[in-house]
Inverse folding.
């Protein structure tokens, strides 16, 4: 194969941009909300849509069942070199769009203006999957396919913690053979500056239940005598952090490694504007651990957050009740070195130590994933750096990421693959919130960056 002209492909990407937007809109119209059983058929449709697109780009593409929503698995042998073999991973599922009334236009009726595309999934992750899918389409048109062997794995359960993906990796490990995983599901640094991420935080998600009396009680008849499980739960949750924001669960920080001095100095030199970061969401005062600067709190420190709390009476008006049960969802962002099992043990002890004999506490683990460290020394990483620098006219920020992609550590531990996290979202894209958007300039940079990376790997 003679390598096609990069300039011609970049020009074709721009000329075809309106059609790219049409395709993305078609995908975004499918409400593939993985968390809600009523959308199971939509998830399957979103998978079928993507498999058909990959087939049109010359891939052998299949929709493969799992115990949950299906995966899209596709292969292209490549048209030039035999290495590196790339595995592109993404997710077609999206977060629930509720509350609907806060959307300026319906979440599954995408709107495009001169600046951005707005819809649930616009950037997380359908729009970002589109950045490499469109690059494959352009390579297919110019050269009959990508210059190196490519496997595609796009799942439908990332937003619910990828509960069935490890089994899928195990079952299909032979057809997932590759050298490196490429993922576009993270953010750039800002509109003008690209980023490559070298670590993600892990996520441990738990639910706590506290049960006391054998029924709900009159709070006048029993108040002052009977144990109130909501009072108790509030006391336990209130003890999670000390006054400086440190998590009080025994052993929580065990195994955690501080970033080396030169890394912390590099982060300081990025001059992250926490005030602007918070202003965008209507806040002004940094919270969290008082003893660490913003990027360290976001990238290198673990957290404990209560995500939901319920029990007793929450309807209109007053009801004088002492409930029999109280519940909370409690999750932890973990950094590499922390072991989820050990933290669960510590949490169980932390809760049990604060429960009198009349209270029965239960701690359930809903999902658990460790943080991951990415090797940034390989040739593909260097090629990605150069591709981004050429596309944006400035080098990428090499940083970490506060969010999580559950499967990423399994790619390392189960399949032994290196990773490249090259994403094009912006911190203010409102992912998981109403009015999620992807800016057209970011989508364009993404497509062109993937074109450039493949071109560099073509040799
Ligand atoms: N794409 C995000 C991860 C992410 C978040 C990257 C913020 C960059 C910035 C991913 O889809 C996501 O939302 N992950 C979940 C995982 C969870 C549901 C197991 C997360 O981080 O909460
Ligand atoms: Mn995502
Ligand atoms: Mn997400």
């Amino acid at each position: 194969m003679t390598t096609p002209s990069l300039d011609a492909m970049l020009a074709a990407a721009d000329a075809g941009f309106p059609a790219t937007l049409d395709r993305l809109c078609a995908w975004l119209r499918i409400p593939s909300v993985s968390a809600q059983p009523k959308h199971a058929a939509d998830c399957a449709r979103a998978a079928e849509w993507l498999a058909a697109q990959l087939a049109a780009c010359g891939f052998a593409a299949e929709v493969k069942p799992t115990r949950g929503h299906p995966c899209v698995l596709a292969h292209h042998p490549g048209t030039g070199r035999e290495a590196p073999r790339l595995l592109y991973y993404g997710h077609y599922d999206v977060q629930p769009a509720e509350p609907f009334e806060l959307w300026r236009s319906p979440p599954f009726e995408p709107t495009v203006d001169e600046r951005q595309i707005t819809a649930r999934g616009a950037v997380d992750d359908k729009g970002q999957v589109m950045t490499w899918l469109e690059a494959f389409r352009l390579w297919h048109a110019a050269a009959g396919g990508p210059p190196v062997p490519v496997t595609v794995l796009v799942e439908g359960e990332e937003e619910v913690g990828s509960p069935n993906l490890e089994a899928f990796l195990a079952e299909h490990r032979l057809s997932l053979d590759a050298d490196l995983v490429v993922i576009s599901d993270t953010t750039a640094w800002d509109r003008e500056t690209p980023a490559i991420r070298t670590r993600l935080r892990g996520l441990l998600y738990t639910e706590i239940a506290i049960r006391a009396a054998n029924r709900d009680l009159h709070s006048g008849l029993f108040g002052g005598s009977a144990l109130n499980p909501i009072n108790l739960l509030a006391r336990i949750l209130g003890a999670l952090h000390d006054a400086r924001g440190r998590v009080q669960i025994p052993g929580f920080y065990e195994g955690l490694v501080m970033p080396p001095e030169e890394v912390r100095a590099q982060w300081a030199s990025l001059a992250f504007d926490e005030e602007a970061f918070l202003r965008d969401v209507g806040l002004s005062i940094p919270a969290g651990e008082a003893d660490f600067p913003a990027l360290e709190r976001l990238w290198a420190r673990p957290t404990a957050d209560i995500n939901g709390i319920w029990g007793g009476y929450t309807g209109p008006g007053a009801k004088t009740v002492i409930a029999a049960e109280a519940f909370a969802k409690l999750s932890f962002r973990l950094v590499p070195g922390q072991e989820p099992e050990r933290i669960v043990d510590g949490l169980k002890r932390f809760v049990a130590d604060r429960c009198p004999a009349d209270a029965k506490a239960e701690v359930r683990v809903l999902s658990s994933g460790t943080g991951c460290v990415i090797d940034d020394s390989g040739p593909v990483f260097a090629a990605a750096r150069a591709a981004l620098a050429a596309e944006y006219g400035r080098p990428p920020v090499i940083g970490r990421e506060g969010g999580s992609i559950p499967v990423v550590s399994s790619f390392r531990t189960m399949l032994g693959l290196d990773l490249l996290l090259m994403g094009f979202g912006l911190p203010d894209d409102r992912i998981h919130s109403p009015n999620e958007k992807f800016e057209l300039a970011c989508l364009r940079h993404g497509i062109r960056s993937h074109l450039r990376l493949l071109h560099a790997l073509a040799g």
In short: The first strand starts at residue 60 and ends at 64. The mean pLDDT is 97. The pocket of BES (ligand 1) is lined by residues 124-125, 158-159, 161, 185-187, 203, 401, 403-406 (CB under 6 Å).
